[in-house]
Amino acid sequence: MTVVNANTRSARGYTLIEVLIAVTVFGVLAASAYVALDGLSRAALEHRQRSDELAALQLTIARFDADVRQLITRPVRGFDGRRQPALTGGRQSLTGTRAGWANPSDLPRSHLQRFSWRFEGDEFVRMDWPVTDAAAGTRAWTEGMLDDLQQLGLRYRDAAGAWHEQWPPPRAGEAQSLPAAIELVIDTRRFGAVRRLLVLSR
Questions:
Q1: 20-45 pLDDT tens trace
Q2: Of 78, 116, 156, 157, which residue has the fewest beta carbons closer than 10 angstroms?
Q3: Is position 98 within any domain?
């Protein structure tokens, strides 16, 4: 007759197979948790990038809108001293003079600002000058507003309702006037084509 000691039975522990099963189960659970956390991290990063890109797009359109809506018909003189139209524009660039240039520091300068928007490479760039009538050596401040663009287009509508791809249009009497409306189309890789129509006069 075999006598089993109670202390020997309690100290028996786990077999190798039981340990391997426990390690395998723990590994599967850990791998599942890692995949889930990695997926959440990627989704959060993608959401943040999308939010940042949308904010940049909205800011660019708001800045463009503010410039265009405060356009004035004041003609300027270029670097060569020649008189230039109040607004000059093409399919991928626009240059004009706006009012309402904020001056919180009360600097001795005009409230008018000469500005330009241009599509360069894949980026929409804003430029402005410290004076309205630029002289030789006057430098512009350049600010990249929106990048990773596929295409950008501008059109200008005259008082008669006709659309033009340049301003002033090739017709007498329009040189110092502003268009009735300006259309901006931005083709972005993330959001596709975004169209903005700005009505300047009715």
A1: 888 888 888 888 887 887 777 777 77
A2: 78
A3: yes
pTM of the model: 0.73
Rounded to whole angstroms, what are the CA distances from 58 to 53, 155, 178?
9, 20, 25
Amino acid 120 reads E
d(CA 106, CA 113): 15
- Whether 84 and 77 have beta carbons less than 8 Å apart is answered as yes
Does 93 reside within a domain?
yes
Q: What is the dihedral of CA 77, 82, 83, 87, to 10 degrees?
A: -70
Residue 142 to residue 152: CA distance in whole angstroms:
18
The CATH number of residue 139's host domain is 3.10.610.10
**Owning domain of residue 89:** 63-199
* Residue type for position 69: R
